[in-house]
Amino acid sequence: MPVVGPEKLVKLQQQGDGIRNICILAHVDHGKTSLTDALIATNGIISPKLAGKIRYLDSRADEQLRGITMESSAISLYFSLLRRSAPEAQPEQKEYLINLIDSPGHIDFSSEVSTASRLCDGAVVLVDAVEGVCSQTVTVLRQTWTEKLRPLLVINKMDRLITEWKLSPSEAYTHLSKLLEQVNAVMGSFALGERMEDDLRWRERIDERVSAAAKVKEDQDSASEGKSRKTSVVQDDEGVVMSSAPAEYEEKDDEDIYFEPERNNVIFSSAIDGWAFTPRQFAGLYEKKLGIKRHILEKVLWGDYYLDQKTKRILSSKHLKGRHLKPMFVQLVLENIWAVYEATTGGPNNKGDQGLLEKITKSLNINIPAHIMRSRDPKALLSAVFGAWLPLSTALLVSVVEHLPSPTTAQESRMPALLEQSPGSSHIDKKISDAMVHSKQTIGEPVVAYVSKMVSIPESELPGNKRRGGTLTAEEARELGRKKRAELARAQAKANGEADVASVTGALSGAAIGEEAEVESTNGAEATNEDPEHLIGFARLLSGTLTVGDEVYVLPPKFTPARPHANPQPKKVTITALYLLMGRSLESLSSVPAGNVVGIAGLEGAILKSGTICSQLEGAPNLSSTTAISTNAPIVRVALEPAYPGDLDKMIRGLRLLEQADPAVTYEQLESGEHVILTAGELHLERCLKDLRERFAKCDIQAGEAIVPYREGIVRAEEMNAPKDPALGRGRVEVMTTSKLVTIRLRVRPLPEPVTEFLVKHTGAVKRLYSERKAQEAERSTAKVEDDTNGDQPEDIEEHDIEAGDTLEEGGQALSMEEFKQRLKEAFEEEKGEKDDWKDVVDKICSFGPRRVGPNILVDATHDAICGRFLHDNLENEAKDKDTHTSTLADTVAQAFQLATHQGPLCNEPTQGVAVFLEALTLNTSESEANQNMGRLTGEIIRTSREAIRAGFLDWSPRILLAMYSCEIQASSEVLGRVYSVITRRRGRIVEESLLEPSTNFTILALLPVAESFGFSDEIRQRTSGFAAPQLVFAGFEALDKDPFWVPRTEEEIEDLGEKADKENVAKRYVEAVRQRKGLFVRKKVVENAEKQKTLKR
Known about the structure:
Helix content: 25-40%
Strand order of the largest sheet: 14-13-19-10-11-18-15-16
Largest sheet: 8 strands, antiparallel
Structural class: alpha+beta
Strand content: 15-25%
Oligomer: single chain
Distance between the termini: 91 Å
């Protein structure tokens, strides 16, 4: 293959219609990187013989070792195609630039999938022909739907149907039909969900207009009524015509959302054997032979269509008249593929059939090189035949060019909705939005780029530091020799356990000139050549032309064009370099036009994870706040420390670099001084620690035990103790502050299950409503809000706690105040019993917690309604109605509620599903004395209220809620029992088991506590000899149905179980483990069974 130089790629960047930005998405081990290899081989970067084996874009050593992709990588490829403008016209060569991003399939790295999909216009979705639709397949299909990407389906690993399952062509066709139905069912479920939402909005609009028309009818006479109704209909933006009966809902055309081979958006392939095809290719092959037009053959090659060999006519199933004919796809396509496998790898000795092979090559008019024909390797022969007949790159790249949109076309359909979702969309500059929608490349147009993540590149791999030319100079050769000898000497010294003088001399001679040599110290630390890491923005240019030296603004995450100069101020940075991303290497660029994927240097320190850059500040859109990064929630928390205390600064610098370079990592320093990182899973944690030690911190780091989050809740249970105060009732507490100046009466109750689920799912909506409320308060009283904002900083710092419990928040942020109130009321109405207790509760909610966005509520049940209303639009009237003293004290109670729900009474973990009713707040002194003692009263009320909430909490039956993983495993029937034993031993629960026909494999869906999941994947692989691999996805919190404080009390329980009970209280074990880790008091017996010891002498 001829090598395509970067100069040609740079030239093609200027042709907007000739660019295709695509990402390759799939479940883990479905063949993404192998497929990418075949495309890279077309540009001469790797040999076609190594395609599928070298995994070129897996540039990390641990990626090659494990055989999975961990980071999304981009590469730009050249593709040329001969096309006819008319059937009789001469073919013309058209050149295309394919910006391809390969993404990981493992659930721990799903954030990398999100960063890749936002930069692209189309997606190539791979599905394993044997394993079918898996958990991550659904996730990536949802990602394409959410991001409005045009998908292309590739059914990969078709060779497994032949070599492993030994299916006949007819059986394979039946299996492929079912597989296609599964994928289309997933796409249909997304469309159905969106259709139901649209239908609901349409009905609400109709109801609004009907009520408005009725109101007009009451106020005006019949003549003016007709006029006003006509005006309201004409001014309607949605174009719905009003009449006496509501107009029908307009159904959207759902034809384009499904994958259909007759529409050539489905590709059948085997990446490892290097072949792929679409029905269009076979239609071209059979056009002359059958005498049927190509466009007709494309539509009938797939489906229930049959070919009558005698008459050369195509029959549908109803015209068979009892004849047993094979479907055309089996007869004309699959049987030929099967024949090639039989000729090359079939036969009794798996050596193929030489006569059949010669017949095939002759009929296809292809030539196989003589040295391959003499080869004894059947795989080489197979690859040679398919490489000449159905090369993978041709089928895939032609489909990409013809079916996936160019940046100009894609942005016209995607950008309007994206800009509308961004904050302050009404204040976006018209010139900027127009340039983004039409992807204008002209110099002088506003420059807007979206940076999806920061990529860490060692300084030695930057283009400016790479050696040009193929041969070494004499000095470079001597320097390289000295370094190699020094490395060899150090390795020998380490092996012999001695530090001889030669190794020290070699280390000194290997040091770079002009740098201070690091002599080995007495503690055995070795000298290392510094190779600092540089962060480069992985970006998509949406409008304008970006040039090296340009000054642009980096918009912070909370930026809004309505207040462009609000704090924090956007940073102005200078673009120091631009790079063409070529997988393992970079190529320098001087400028980049809109529509391209590019690496941007100069953003280090200005962007944490993702962000928007714009050439002007006024009217700039903030795209980073609309990103739908669907990461697997960072649930695994680990404390780190350096092996040598002197390396602490190195470790902190490395942690900050890691946090910027990895979109799913969060770093924080606790009050105790611990340095903690949050990661998405065990494998992700392992990769982060490796990066820290070898790249970012470059020092030895020790990791503590993984810290898993828990939640605390309460339920109504039969085994509850009697209320502590029967006169007040269960959960009600009346307390007085230590100074006897204030009396508080609270009632704590468990929230109904539907309400808790709703609040957990819509944490994002609560967070957005709270931000809007703060903004309204800012307009009323700027000075007060500045103080409140400073006080709220800890909420933003530990925002990941919210995200860890809020994994399924799809669409939650889009709810308005009225929609949120209505749906919350509906959730309360689902509670069957005690409806009177929850009547009008929604209107009385004054706060959510913890951190003002959690799944607990504080309800103002006081007679005078002294607390503020959270779900209330008119803040001014609310402020006027408040009494100054009582409202100040009520705000203090609200602060105590936040603290109490943030640290529950069991083990100081956040609570979930708790409602606190503030029934009375009485001031037992005069207002003047209260004013004098307000400072002391504030602290007393917070402490007293917090203890009262805890006491009310413990009056019910407490529960510990475990973080749970949803575990999907595909395993054969032979190892099914071993998989079940591992899941059961780790306190897991089997949810579903289904047979994956026509194989003997089963798909197992289970729930597993995160606390018991460490080492689970390795144990499953060991017990099943590698035949089963689990995918763990965080699925929220689930209550352990056991009271941690339960002990046998009744005579029957003591008689059956004994005083200490037969079984260990698992809930108590979890609670005590967390308390012990946090340094809280744990009641433990040091000596369980004491016996008198006898000495040997006696």
